[in-house]
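Exam revision sheet. Question 4 asks you to relate a sequence to its structure. Input first:
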Amino acid sequence: MFFSLTDEQRALQATVRDFLVDRFPLTSVRAVYDDEDGDGDPAELWKSIGEQGWLAVLVPEEHDGHGLGLLDAAVLARCWGEGCVPGPFLPTLIAAEAIRLGGTPEQQAEWLPRVAGADVRLTLAAGGRMTVNEGKLNGTVNHVEYAHVADRLVVAADAGSLWLLDPSSPGVTITVNDTLDRSTRLATVRLDGVPAEQLARPVLPEVLDRAAVLVANDLAGIARVALSRTVDYDKTREQFGKPVGSFQALKHLLADLHIATTMAEHAGWYAAHAIDAQLPDAALAVSVAKAKASDAARDVTAAMIQLHGGIGYTWEHDAHLFFKRAKRLEYTYGDAATHRERIARLVVDGS
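Answer key, structure tokens:
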């Protein structure tokens, strides 16, 4: 089967890339890194994202959105990785998917138009130990992206149930953590008897698959830009009077990294398409994409530092921006080992 992006999706990718390079280059990302007291959510960037309508990508047309598919959102995620872009854009898309897939008509009507208009920030709090007692949540979730700026949290609790709650409610404690990758902000969310509004359907597995696909495409974007920058540098850096890129050992290494990155790129696109088309191998495609992208981005960004020589280890060089983002996302929504185990269950066990 032949599969590729449509002309419209390629045009979207080019537009987003140009916009981010012009409006939020790596110098701006570095400013977010260095701002110890900032919330990691540049106001002008969020405003610009809203004006471009990118938050509306997955919102149905009846709720003022574009009604597009996960593959279109993956195009955006790929560009976000290429630019190491900060902010709660992807967390908001993921949490909004929970409301779109599992919310009541009233919840969808209240929140999805506000997401499309960039009027609210959302995030998903999953993976912790959360219990429910008479509609009140108790427990702790670690590593929640941008919980401190979110207008609503979508919290996963007992039996995969999903709950919508206001983070300003009594009993909510949000502690922002120091993190290796400061292109995001992570927080610990503690809930002590917090009333919440349950979503109509327990759609957590579907939401986690969609989140894994978006993160896989972010990682693929990181890998490709890191590889391209490394190849360009090694074409000009000289040792013994020759460009280091002409040495056979480096040629072989870079060729292997190119193959791994290309496979991650195609796996990321296909996984998004498989979910959109409801193909029978969608779950398998998700895990293949996340496993390949996690490995590729980790290996490419590590090689980027080494193949830039001494300068690659310095704070002044941009290599660490890509390496740290790749290292964080490697484990987000399942690392390669976790997804390879899932692949084995799907293929060998048939479960």
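Marking note for examiners. The longest helix spans residues 204-236.
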